[in-house]
Task: structure prediction
Amino acid sequence: KAGVTQTPRYLIKTRGQQVTLSCSPISGHRSVSWYQQTPGQGLQFLFEYFSETQRNKGNFPGRFSGRQFSNSRSEMNVSTLELGDSALYLCASSLAAATEAFFGQGTRLTVV
Amino acid sequence: AQTVTQSQPEMSVQEAETVTLSCTYDTSESDYYLFWYKQPPSRQMILVIRQEAYKQQNATENRFSVNFQKAAKSFSLKISDSQLGDAAMYFCAYRSALSSGYSTLTFGKGTMLLVSP
Result:
């Protein structure tokens, strides 16, 4: 069974640009969550989606948005990139709410 | 809001020895899950062990076991017979178990485990 797949693995963007990250969950998993990991702030929750509905959102500015498609694949978008958005973005999928989460390998975003 | 605290930024252990990583949490909920995740240099988060709060028995997975003290809100991870491959950042995480609850994980800051030959 394939694991959680995140694309791309690495990304370099310029300040002011926008970026879209993709996450394909494990087959059959309907819950997808996104986390931002930085050395200073650690792991911070961004969003959670379940059956195409955003169920929860972390404390991030409106420049961060996401969505989930009918096949459970999810995308997150960051507009008007800032240097501080440089981070490892991790996606996790779960079979249903309150079960264990399985993580992808992450997308390393560097903003220059 | 729930918080998770890992007070040990770094721990060291020799191969074949035992090490314990500490984690405390704060919550007003009575039903929840606790997890330990491992993040090696590859950066992929790997689930090590899971504990349901309603279970009194401590979870065990091979060389990994937990000491879950619900009243004290403490959840430590014991690694026995440490191996070089255990070297990684370890994160303690909390998740609500409410039926209408979310899948959101709250993480601690992590403990870097160094394993020496």
Observations:
- The first strand of chain A starts at residue 5 and ends at 7.
- The CA atoms of residues 35 and 45 of chain A lie 5 Å apart.
